[in-house]
Please model this.
Amino acid sequence: MPSTRRSVLLGTASALVALAGCNETTSDDYPTVTPVDVPRTKAEALQEAAELDRPEIPGAVRVTDDHLEAAIEDTERLIADLRSALDRGEDLDLQELGRRLQHEPEGLPERAETQLESAREAGPSEGALSTIERAVRDVALAVGYLEARLGDVDRAGIEAALDTEAAATEALIDDFSYRVADPLVEHLPTLRAAEASLDRLDDLDRARAPLDEADPERDELDIAIGFARRELEVHRRNRRDAERLMQTATDGNRPSLRPAIDDVSSGLRGEVESIVETYADRDPPSGASIEGELRGIRIHVGRRGQQWLSREAERDAERVGPLGQLLDMTAWLVEFAALDVAVTRTTDRLDGGEMPTDAIVAAKRDAIEALERAAEGDALQRELAARGGILVRSADRSATAGDDARTVARTHLLYAAADEWGRRALDRGSDLAARLQAQQS
Model:
């Protein structure tokens, strides 16, 4: 474990014992001292807590080597198209694209290649796929614009490409499978990621709108074609990612989990509604004491369940992403339970509005232990625990924001919530898996 200020203070205590305060006695041969324990200040306790290493929870989504390499190769072909267009259009200026690009146009191919190398170094992961998508955006916009200026592509050509992509997307939606591979707990987060990739697919009419609005006499059509090409390539990248992730997470020989997903979701919705009914009409207190402020957090999270239910209800009509809805609902229940317990635990430790300094470090250690156990769990448990890891990072930032009584109490609350979050994620994950498996079998 890394050294902390507390360990340094203890290590030098014997040298400073006379100054720190001690009781001195004398034996027949030599004097001895009995050190007096010097309490930590709030600032020291917060610093020590923040410096404790927090665990990293491994990603829950399986991205295969072949998936990553295919995504890189697709983007390399797009970069090659950009280099070709730049060579043939030496007199063309990408500056006309202006702020439509994420970065300056100079060195665009090289910057995209650097992003692909970063994705390779990261290895198969959602983060690597996100890096590739960012590379695609600027490259595709530039390719579309340059090829339009060079006469390689016209409006009819880009619209035909959009039609083809729309048809491919509809086919994937129709064929999307919930035949989750065994073991279920290791593949559910990956299938959820496939759903999320589909959810990110905007209606391609968004790409068509600038084509209708562009004035050809003002050279707006070339920029509109560039925009459409960017939307097309990003859409295609997300569709291919969704298809690859689905293939990784499913097995055609397994029964569909879709009926079980809907049934378990219906049961969990009752839990959410019960919490919402308790807190929907409560308002967080204004100008409250520290205890009141902490209890207000519980009310805020409880009321937010109503907003979640409203969004979920709106999506019910089309039933897009049922697995994502189920896991989101489960994660919200973990979140509320964690904060509910953390509020009680924190208010119980307050003494006259002050938090004992030793409670901060103890809470951080408890959070570390809980999240370390969650990090060793299965993929579904890690998926549910991931936000607990984010909570610890928030607590560490809070620990360095000041040492007033409210900041100290909030920091303890966040550490306590992360501790409970890790525990609840393990329990909820196991329970959810058992309920789904019982119906799939």
Summary: The mean pLDDT is 86. Residues 358 and 380 are 34 Å apart (CA to CA). The beta strands are 22-26, 31-35. The chain has 16 helices and two strands.
